[in-house]
Design goal:
extended; Sterol 22-desaturase; oxidoreductase; 57% helix; 163 residues; two-stranded antiparallel ribbon; oxidoreductase activity, acting on paired donors, with incorporation or reduction of molecular oxygen; mainly alpha; iron ion binding
Length: 163
């Protein structure tokens, strides 16, 4: 809701400013302006603001905290993963996984004799986790590595503070 209000305040140039929690913030609505700004982020001029615990959670060398040539080099290495061709292959992988999970959920629902509602939270989480693992790592994770990743991901989310 706050972002919608802030977006409504945007100037004809595609941005608005505000003070939030004592910090000057710029809200950018224009993709052209976003591109221009992201190409000029420097530690001596402006900084991107992520989650308050971002550096502790993701490390000092996460992409959003990098500057200069290191940032450009990393973006160049991951850019091929987001081309239209690459994205189109992810869709077919995701579709197969989603359909398999929907079939499992249907079996769970039909095996329930008392027609009680089924909590989807963990089922959807497992589906999303499998989708991410398969799309980003492919068939290279064995069952043990998937299980370990699942446990670590769960621990990470359990302790993740909500801002």
């Amino acid at each position: 809701v706050l972002t919608e209000v802030q977006a409504d305040l945007s100037s004809r140039y595609g941005f608005s400013t505000n003070y939030l929690i004592g910090k000057f913030m710029v809200f950018i609505r224009s993709s052209e302006l976003s591109n221009l700004i992201f190409h000029n982020v420097r530690p001596d001029a402006s900084m991107l603001v992520g989650h308050p615990f971002g550096k502790k959670l993701f490390g000092e060398h996460n992409l959003i905290y990098m500057f200069g040539q290191d940032h450009k080099d990393l973006r160049g290495r991951i850019a091929p993963n987001f081309t239209p061709k690459a994205l189109s292959t992810y869709i077919s992988i995701q579709q197969k996984i989603i359909l398999n999970h929907l079939k499992k959920w249907e079996k769970i629902a039909s095996s329930s004799l008392d027609n009680k509602p089924i909590s989807l939270r963990l089922l959807v989480r497992d589906m999303n986790l499998e989708t991410s693992q398969t799309v980003f790592v492919g068939p290279y994770l064995n069952a043990n590595a998937r299980r370990r990743f699942n446990q670590d991901y769960n621990l990470f989310n359990v302790v993740l503070p909500i801002p």
